[in-house]
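Quick start: what a row looks like.
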Amino acid sequence: MELRQLEHFVAIAEEESFTRAARRLSYVQSALSVSIQALERELGVRLFDRTTHRVALTDVGAALLATATRTLAAVDELHDTAAAFRGVIRGTLRIGLMQAFRFVDVPGLLGRFHEDHPDVDIQIRPSVGGSAALVEDLRQGGADIAFVSLPGDLSGLAVTPLGEEELLLVGRRDRLPAGRGPIKLTTIGEARFLDFPAGWGVRAVIDEAFAAAGLDRHVAIEVADVATLSRLVASGLGVAILPRSLLPHGVEVQTRPLTPPLWWRAVMAVPARRPVSTAAQALAELVIDSTGRQ
């Protein structure tokens, strides 16, 4: 078995396509197929179910993916450690980043990071599955560092708080309760809500608050895109609960505070149960320096 075969396996699994994986790896697609067939023969199992329209992991392929990912990460760590002793940071830095992250200027910091460490290949991994998917990716070795907002279980991760923001009820004026003061959840329990899918940090905070209050909430539309959700709210399709920073400029909506207030908190997370790559450590230090946190 060769490491490149594991790289091919992981790329195809992540892209769910031989064509996209070949493009990502700058590899000939036919050679990629030959590589996977050889790996399957050596392991004695079928890794993918292939049809005309899709490529999907088999059950055994899904079980082996985490091991393959960890193996490649260990090899990267080996090279990174050797390079660090030469005073060079190299390798691949895989960053999980949720949409519309406003607590830290991640793009600006990555620009500075690239200037200081040009030998590091930076890969940004947004996820439509929200912070929950990014956290799981970090735990499974698919990411080296992540910027997420997720209440509840963050076991296996070392986190650095980056900030918090109050959540507001957002909607067109005719969709909001009358008045100007704070609104209780019981007042809006029957409202028609628009929200992000389960797994997004904002959604998790809101779901937990309604559950704690013993209230059911009707989510009429789920949208995995910040800008689209805001436009749908402005169109009068329902109300949402959002931090002010996620409201794009030019969207005509009203906001009302909630009582008791709900808070959206963001953290930077790295693995706590496996070594953190030299590149991830360097980026984490840069973020901490930029925020003045220790």
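That is the whole record. The longest strand covers residues 157-171. The chain has a mean pLDDT of 87.
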